[in-house]
Fold this protein.
Amino acid sequence: MTPQPTWPRRVLQAAAIYNLLWGAWVILFPNHWFDLTGIPRPNYPGIWQCVGMIVGVYGLGYWWASRDFARHWPVIAVGFLGKIFGPIGFLQSVITGALPWSWGWMILTNDLIWWIPFGAMLYLGFKTNSDPVHKQSLTESQEWSLEQANELAKTSKGESIGQLSAHQDVLLVFLRHAGCTFCRETLDELSKARLQWQQRGLLPVVVHMGSFDQGIQMMKSYGLEDCPVISDPQCKLFRAYQLPRGTWNQLFGLRVWIEGFKAAILKGYGFGTLVGDGFQMSGSFVVRKGQIIKTYPSKDAADSCSWRPAISALIALAFGIAVAEFPTARAQSQEKSPGTKEIELKDEFVISEIKEGDRIEFRKTLTADQRVVEVFSQKGIGGFKISRTSETWPAKLSFRIHTKGLEQVELVFEAEEKICRTYTGQFNSTRMQESWSVTDRPISVGSTDPVRSRELDSKQPSICVLDPSVKPIESVKIPLEQGQSFLWTLPKEWLADQNPRCIEIRWIDFFRN
């Protein structure tokens, strides 16, 4: 728990001494101030002396509150209200002519100079009392290490982060609180980006501060009921991942107000009830096998989509952009026949039957289970074969195709049994609209087995467009601009189902030569 600052104690003690002295002065010399300001003495000075008594009693309250300003915030709040209403009453009296402007000096010393410190103490008191650690017992407040957090924090289905990240990368998304308009926007945008995180093989896990039932209902509202959710009302997981509580500027800065108006009013996300610590900052992490590989803390409360850079970064890692020690592997080629050449890539793959004018490059990544093949097609119609030399294909195999527009791509499995399987994607000529099918053909000449074709879910084998910095483009225009490219990451189940020794890639560009 963050230690309390010492300045509130000194301010409250100074306020207490001032109130006691002022009250004693008014009680003992009720006519003195009237004589100084040149107005007639009151007919009933006892009323004015009662005001002095009330102010002096406030002084006793301030001295008591100085022992623990956060705990005794109601005393400060009552005093603060008096210091607001006093100047309002004074202005009304001046306007009606009941009091002269010279009484403003008393308003200055009694009320106005205390506005800022009293307001700051109320803010700090609310922040302290909102901190879950402040409300916990000694046993409950024991901090988790990252390793403990990944095992002890459970989803609604009883799974830990360590268990989930052992099988695939986890996109851990921390929300501020359920009533936050920016958190509502985060979930909506995460739902809309389903295609992106599915293609990257990411599993979003949402951490919030409400109950499990509140979290499940919240996820259903945005079509994310299939994503795991973790309830963390004590914010132990937030602290284990070192997400801080926000500063004034991060929570109430000008940008937060502007973006809050856009999100709540213009976009219609609205506001909700505060559930949890309203000062807690959000953030996103990519977790692999229990280890954090990417960290994206929010810059301020309005940073609702801090998870987006995580997806972009994984794409960058997939192309070795962030890793100097893994450069492009373009091996020496050997001529086999006119228009055909064969390349061996570090004993991992053999690429063959490359068309004349095409170029194939190979990139390694940070992880051993991910490979990227870059395809440069001069004529816009081409293809090649890629064979594995190991027992299985990598878990993630991607093709980055440098063409202006895709009309069709095909993935053909070299049959090792009786069936030749072909996956075919058709694309719209002006926008990224795709349809997919799979066809199984018998390979035996004269076979009576039928050819079987079926449509595939278009969301499954999505192809996205990357800009020159290898970041996904939201609004795609065909033909692509200079430096842009298509990224096709094969669904892992395609390769896992049959594990073919060789596959063939074919493509047709709308803007072929």
User: Anything to note?
Assistant: The chain has three domains: 7-130, 146-318, 333-509. Residues 333-509 form one domain. The mean pLDDT is 81. The first helix runs from residue 7 to 28.
